[in-house]
Automatic annotation (TrEMBL), chain A:
This is Chloride channel protein. The keyword Transmembrane applies. The chain crosses the membrane at residues 12-33. GO terms for molecular function: GTP binding. InterPro entries: G_SEPTIN_dom, P-loop_NTPase.
From TrEMBL, chain B:
It comes from the Eukaryota. Residues 27-299 form the Septin-type G domain. One of its GO terms (biological process) is cell division. It comes from Favolaschia claudopus. This is Septin ring protein. Belongs to the TRAFAC class TrmE-Era-EngA-EngB-Septin-like GTPase superfamily. Septin GTPase family.
């Protein structure tokens, strides 16, 4: 499967944050380690880039309308650290859900629905023997090939090693051996040959990050402009109101003054004109 | 202790066992089982596999525009299976949608209520002055509880529900879709589950009673060592070594449901149908129903005592 080469890789040193959500942490963590294990030495500009993966398992109880549902989150998988940029937002969320054989459960749908406005959600289906029922519309539009694979069916293993002339990463069952790197067994198997999974994931993440960054700045520009114009209008309105009020006040004052003058005049007239008037 | 005597010549009353059998064969047996677990864990498939018949349809949603099931509509499906002249009346109660919602509070209430309702119905019939000779028994004899094969431990909801259910019915927990675990993972998962069951004081079937002899106690111990049964179900057949067996084919092999090295389905099947079927029915009547009955009758008596005060 031909992949577009990463364009003008100027991204060394940007921090990507991937959040992983799922019930079966062991499998997920194993899979991530499996993917990250291979260093990308093909492209020269990455050769020196430091790779750090840190996984912090966190037990979170989601209180949804009084109910308890345990989700195990693996946080902060940092790929390529750069001391300058400290962007801690989550750029992508890998949502691992258990295949029920029928459909997504309400909790899965609800969780993904609530998460999607805040972060790009990539649904990943665990350890199944056939693809079907992808009902969730993945909001990331760029890579059609990836999209066709959704939801990804994956196997992860870092421990089981079977020597068949050479070591193979696999899960060993009484009825067969599921090889991690075999593309017939896992959707990300054999990534060391063709689509370099790391490149793939990084491309996905990079595109996601870029899109987000750009759209955010555009949105923020628009938003600030809009905010500005609103402010201006409001200020104008306030000024006009202020002026009106002042004018009114002044008028009232003038009227009042006129009134008092007239009073004075009439009183004087009643008493007789001039200061010499006396009886 | 009365002394046992041996008659001087053969009388022939030992044929009473055949007489009873003959009667029972005519009447048939009733077995009621309830399946509890989240959607998609293979409950319907398992019961079909155990009785080697298509008894229940799977209840999952198959299209995305079907609404998520909101309520647990607890319904019984009845079948009569005949084997060598023995008639078995089966009631299978499914609990679709259990544990699927975002808010799963009290999702066990309808299930516990259903079980108690069956005791209640039986009691009412028993207390009727003109009662039937043979009361139709809808009391649940066995509850198969399906555990998600996460490989970690029981979820809080599993603990709560199993505890509540074990107070009213015989609970037999199983690890659903266990072919997603390797043998090592399976063993450590079972260990953890057993620890948690002990920790939370969850009383599972089989129970040891004073009447059990050594052999029976040993059998119960063996069962308890296997619980929860790690099972795989299948309503399709595959060909392995020229034989047609129930199995599942996936990308890296074929799981033979009937192979004891692949899963513990055969152990569960034998346990439920070949060794403990009668005991499940009996303990339901003698332990769970009796407990319910005494509570109800005591409450009735209290009610009667309080009435003069009104």
């Amino acid at each position: 499967m031909p992949l577009p080469k990463r364009r003008g890789n100027k991204v060394k040193g940007v921090q990507f944050t991937v959040m992983v959500v799922g019930l079966y942490l062991q499998i997920i963590v194993t899979w991530i380690w499996t993917c990250m294990a291979h260093k990308d030495v093909d492209t020269p500009d990455n050769a020196h880039a430091e790779e750090r993966v840190r996984i912090k398992p966190v037990n979170v109880e989601l209180e949804e309308e009084g109910a308890n549902y345990d989700d195990i989150l693996a946080e902060q998988s940092r790929i390529k650290r750069n001391p300058r940029f400290r962007d801690n937002r989550v750029h992508a969320l890998l949502y691992f859900y258990r295949a029920t054989g029928h459909h997504l459960r309400e909790i899965d749908i609800e969780l993904m629905r609530r998460l999607s406005p805040r972060v790009n959600v990539i649904p990943v289906r665990e350890d199944i023997d056939h693809h079907d029922i992808p009902i969730y519309n993945f909001p990331y539009d760029r890579n059609m090939e990836l999209r066709a694979l959704l939801p990804f069916a994956v196997i992860g293993s870092e421990e089981e090693i079977d020597v068949n002339g050479e070591p193979v990463r696999a899960r060993i069952y009484p009825w067969g051996i599921a090889e991690v790197d075999n593309p017939e067994h896992s959707d990300f198997g054999g990534y060391s040959h063709l689509p370099d999974l790391k490149m793939l994931t990084e491309d996905v993440l990079y595109e996601t990050y870029r899109t987000e960054k750009l759209s955010r700045s555009v949105h923020s520009d628009i938003r600030s402009l809009r905010a500005q114009s609103v402010r201006l209008k409001r200020e104008q309105q306030l000024r006009r109101d202020e002026e009106k009020r002042e004018i009114n006040e002044k008028r009232q004052e003038l009227l009042a003054k006129e009134e008092s003058l007239r009073n004075l005049e009439s009183r004087l007239a009643a008493q007789g004109l001039g200061p010499e008037a006396s009886y | 202790m009365t002394e046992e005597i041996r008659a001087e010549s053969y009388v022939g009353f030992d044929s009473i066992t055949q007489q009873i059998e003959h009667k029972l064969l005519k009447r048939g047996f009733q077995f009621n089982v309830i399946l509890v677990g989240q959607t998609g864990l293979g409950k319907s498939t398992l019961i079909n596999t155990i009785f080697a018949s298509h008894l229940v349809d799977s209840k999952g949603r198959f299209t995305s525009d079907e609404p998520v099931r909101q309520t647990t509509e607890i319904q019984a499906v009845s079948h009569v299976i005949v084997e060598n002249g023995v008639k078995l009346r089966l009631n299978i109660v499914d609990t679709p949608g259990y544990g699927d919602q975002v808010n799963n509070e009290n999702c066990w209430d309808p299930i516990v209520k259903y079980i108690k309702d069956q005791h209640s119905a039986y009691l009412r019939k028993e207390l009727t002055a003109m009662r039937d000779r043979y009361i139709q028994d809808t009391r649940i004899h066995c509850c198969l509880y399906f555990i998600n094969p996460t490989g970690h431990s029981l979820r809080p909801i599993d603990v709560i529900v199993m505890k509540k259910l074990s107070e009213v019915v015989n609970v037999v927990p199983v690890i659903a879709k266990s072919d997603s675990l390797t043998p090592d993972e399976r063993e450590s998962f079972k260990e953890k589950i057993r620890e948690e069951l002990v920790y939370h004081n969850i009383r599972l079937y089989p129970f040891d009673t004073d009447e059990d002899d050594q052999e029976e106690v040993a059998v119960n111990e063996a069962i308890r060592a296997k619980v929860p049964f790690a099972i795989v179900g299948s309503d399709t057949s595959v060909i392995i070594d020229g034989k047609s067996v129930r199995g599942r084919k996936n990308r890296w092999g074929v799981v033979n449901v009937e192979n004891k090295e692949h899963c513990e389905f055969m152990d569960l099947r034998d346990f439920l149908t070949r060794t403990h079927l009668q005991d499940l029915i009996e303990t339901t009547a003698q332990i769970h129903y009796e407990a319910f009955r005494s509570k109800q009758l005591l409450a009735l008596k209290e009610g009667v005592n309080q009435r003069p005060a009104q």
